[in-house]
Automatic annotation (TrEMBL):
GO terms for cellular component: Fanconi anaemia nuclear complex. This is E3 ubiquitin-protein ligase FANCL-like. Residues 16-90 form the Fanconi anemia complex subunit FancL WD-repeat containing domain. Residues 110-185, 191-284 form the FANCL UBC-like domain. One of its GO terms (biological process) is interstrand cross-link repair. It comes from the Eukaryota. Pfam families: FANCL_C (PF11793), FANCL_d1 (PF09765), FANCL_d2 (PF18890), FANCL_d3 (PF18891). It comes from Hirondellea gigas.
Amino acid sequence: MFITGFPELLFTQWQPNNVASFNGFLLLQGIEQEVELRVPHFPHSRGAILYSPNFALSAKLHTAQQHLYQAAEECGTLTTFLKKVQQILSDDDHKDIAQDEGVPDWWLCLLRDLEGIGWHNISSVSTELRRVTVKAVVAEREHLLHVSIQPGYPYTKPSYEASLPVTLNPTNTTLCGSVDAWWQQLGELQQFWDVMAELDGTAAVLDPATPQLHHTHRRILLSNQVSVHLVVSPFSPHSPPQCQMIGSSHLTAPLLTLLTQRYHEWDSERSIVGNLEQLLQVTVVRRGSGRRTAPDHSDSDDSDDEMSDAGCVICFSLHYGTELPDSICEHCHQAMHLTCLYTWLSGLSHSRQSMQFICGDCPCCKKPISCKVPA
């Protein structure tokens, strides 16, 4: 089957309910556009609908849908209908569409904004034009900006979702202005992401389990069974980060003293790992350097060997749900999840529990240890 006058539209298949499907190209506004034509009453044009994978054309088809529906009902043949489609989407007739009271003004404003952004930068547009996703690739990192178009656009500011370490709050109400602000922030944050990528590639990162672009913190492991929780400034990533030592007080106290005394020696030309090793006189555990000492029977999907030294000595895993092994024995310096330690102590016949704490023997050294009762 073919359509007279449109040899580049070829019949492909019968869809459910005897809908004929044609795929190919249609000349619209002087450009060959890829389209799909679905005809529920073939060979009559009644109910015929055009689709396109091209976002710009798809948006224009949505804008002109009332005119296209009327043409499909009145034309009779597919040849006449497709010629009418070409006429409706021509430049002159597109102005008439804009003047049609049935077409929302915000659609036309949004289409202009999308064209201003560039259709090659648009990842997706919802069929009702209420959700737009803009993409950008900078330094081999893919960034997505999810935009929700609010009622009253363009006078009402859209809402945004983006994986950024800072809040995106552009003052411009239009999509073009907002995307420009987002692109500018992406450029300003590249140094921050470079610093974090170097840290992730060098050190054994305990938390977050899967670092994302919006994370400003990392928890890394030192060679003396102490971990450091770092918070890096997005706009000053080479400055000294906030540091919190996690571990036995016998081990963290000397490190905190050293950090306080030598804080002014932080060198912005060195990496975070290099600075920590220089100031604290201790080695940062490298990514991929550790070895597991016991099988992991938890629900965690941890598989990196370097996490073994930081794992809980009770369940032998790093993550227990959202928990990390932050309960440290002051005697043997072994780390445990709060939930694991509480479960262990609860099973001891001689443990003692108050309203908020439970006391008993460490599972490793058998010396006294206590923990809070989990909420």
